[in-house]
Fold these 2 entries.
Entry 1:
Amino acid sequence: MKRTPPVWLETLRLELREFTPDDIGDLVRLDGDPRVLKYINGGKPMSKRETDTAMRRVTRYYALYPGLGVWRASLRDGGRFIGWYCLKYCPPTTEVEVGYRLLHAHWGRGYATEGARALVDYGFDDLGLGRIIGVTHPGNKASQHVLQKAGLSDLGWGRYYDRRLRLFACERAAESRA
Ligand SMILES: CC(C)(COP(=O)(O)OP(=O)(O)OC[C@H]1O[C@@H](n2cnc3c(N)ncnc32)[C@H](O)[C@@H]1OP(=O)(O)O)[C@@H](O)C(=O)NCCC(=O)NCCS
């Protein structure tokens, strides 16, 4: 029987919940679009097999690292799947990164910024993280803009995912620790 996990985070327009293997069709649609993967995975759309592997990793992650994960996002108005947001360790480090991947049809409406801001707040206020990073391909200006609008600053270059990427970061405000 299908089990749909509860929504655990809501913003003005979005709701986030854990993925289950039954959501594989959503990921196949997202990761099979070359426009979405232009700056990821060397620009190559993912095969069904690669997406299956990614789904297994995603659905195991919640129990391995409670509080962190990659969450399925849909619109509160109508419930359509739009993509995912994450807060997870950024390989090969133990730094926590905020990330997002949206279906092309939903770009340009502020959804990435809205979800990223909510996860940054959650990371600092609920998880008590000291610092959150974001990493992007140097050409991915839209993503860099989103990270900056979510409060992360440009720190130059860093090496993550075995690539030279732009590094953005944000530290928990001193006053919130008091
Ligand atoms: C990156 C992505 C999440 C952005 O989603 P989005 O919902 O369109 O983002 P938002 O609307 O919240 O904000 C995008 C901002 O970047 C700006 N922008 C878009 N394209 C840009 C470009 N080429 N150069 C500079 N700024 C750009 C937009 O104008 C907007 O800023 P504004 O609100 O100040 O006008 C979306 O394009 C996506 O899913 N891409 C594929 C996956 C991906 O690259 N993920 C990030 C990996 S690091």
Entry 2:
Amino acid sequence: MKISYSRLAEYSECPRRYYYRYVEERSLPKQSEEMVLGSILHDLLKYILTPALLPPTFQDAERRLRSLLSGKVGAERMAEAIELGRKVIANLLNEDTSRILAIEYSFSLALSKHLVTGRMDRVDRHKDGELEILEYKLHSQRGWRDNLQLVLYHLAAESIWHPPSIKLTLVSFIDNEKDSFYLKESEVVEGREKIINLASGIERGDFTPLRGDHCFRCPFYTVCFKEFPPERESLL
Ligand code: SF4
């Protein structure tokens, strides 16, 4: 089956939530301001770092920031969002763009009988041939090192560019901190199996609820607990 990594991530957190969202296509509440801000900063990343004959100036980028924020962030948070956006613009304009190989690079990767799609925020090629995949997040999150998305990027980069080595770097927009590391071969093999198992679970139609703390943030909490009341959970 062909599936995007973002859908696999949803399925991995809870197969039933995936079912409500993508099989039954139930509507979701409006995106949080934090998610809106994250997507605006990714837009700026692409705007500033995509190689161009005439790269944007700080003023160009700030104009774009203000127009992207308009109507999406409440008046009470606008000044804070502009301040943060200005900091991010200054940091991005300071980046060495000479080694950038790709920005917002979309790929499809065949894994067993599945085709998994994804998009890398940024890929750099260093002088020694090493590839660096940079994933931008709003905040620093060390827990992200264990994310299957990074394994998928590693596998995709290996199959597309065949580099001698692959470095993964998590970048925080807010603190401009970079956390770089390499995956062990065993982590790549194990992660690959997990990704294949997730896609196979969707293909089989296994949408068993996975209860956890995430249930309290779930937009389908009411329907799920009605359909699968706690007293019936031992039967699931
Ligand atoms: S309430 Fe919990 S178990 Fe039910 S769909 Fe949401 S996350 Fe899954």
